[in-house]
Please model this.
Amino acid sequence: MEEWKKTSCVLCGNLCGLEVRVENNRINQGTGDKDNLRSAGYVCRKGLNIHHHQHHADRLLYPLKKSGQGFERISWDQANR
Model:
């Protein structure tokens, strides 16, 4: 089932308002939210391509710590210390 949801872009500090089309728990498309008081429908190219950033294969899904062999997975509690 496809539905449109309102959210904000977090890819920079402007926090532009977005409307995203969600289908099967995945973002398929993003557009500017004209009702957003901060951005009034404006969104940059990063926001328009939010689906690419959200579902990219190299996106980090958990915290990592640098070690002698590269990076190792750590808990959220350890990362927040």
Q: What stands out?
A: Helices lie at 45-48, 50-54, 76-79. The chain has three helices and five strands. Residues 50-54 form the longest helix (5 residues).
